[in-house]
């Protein structure tokens, strides 16, 4: 009996140990980027990247925040696109997924298959680009970073549909219908309050997609004033002179290049770009786990 109790304790302990090790290993890249960002440029050039910097220096952050206007503008564009895009995309996804979860919807299986089909095949980049540029005219506007991602993600729709089907009792909806509630009232007064876990989960997915989106900015934006933070970071990581060319005259660029901590600036900019999400994620964690597990019970 004693041996059986010991074996039962060893199992959960080993699982917890495995996930702790996995978590630590997952954090190593972030820790390395931060450590490099606070390392002196000389130590990086001499000994390379290290988790334990030989000489701590905040010159990279001083360089970035010396003229913060470009980064602040990119942050503003990203925040606006993320807030508007996340809310509107979440609303569209919920309004599409809820009818698909209702057994009374005609051709429900056909529509669900159509949504699933879009996960497997796309229309191609050229038609996609021409549609947005020539028909919608979103080039060089902030809508080019909002509208393309508004088109429904099939995975999000199916995940939310599964949650509605398995979590919200049909008897509750039938009772509300008998009491005279309209479909809009049922959706906003009953379905949405009961679906906060999946709403937070899909909202987190949308937030990550909008915040990390640099591809649409690269395709549709030619004006530097409309660059978002991720595309600004991408340009800077590939061409560290970009920030200098934007914030200084050509006569000063050569002098500043000689003094600039290049490698640490790249890592510091990566930290600046990802830090808001790292701080926001713990607040969504509870709803995120609940939404994933509840929505994955049935297909």
UniProtKB/TrEMBL annotation:
Gene Ontology CC terms, in alphabetical order: plasma membrane
Q: Where is the ABC transmembrane type-1 domain?
A: 75-284
DNA damage among keywords: no
Q: Which UniProt keywords apply?
A: Cell membrane, Membrane, Transmembrane, Transmembrane helix, Transport
Example GO biological process term? transmembrane transport
**Transmembrane residue ranges:** 17-38, 74-99, 111-130, 142-164, 184-206, 265-284
Q: Source organism's superkingdom?
A: Bacteria
Protein name per Swiss-Prot or TrEMBL: Carbohydrate ABC transporter permease
Compartments, record wording: Cell membrane
**Membrane topology type:** Multi-pass membrane protein
The family assignment reads: Belongs to the binding-protein-dependent transport system permease family.
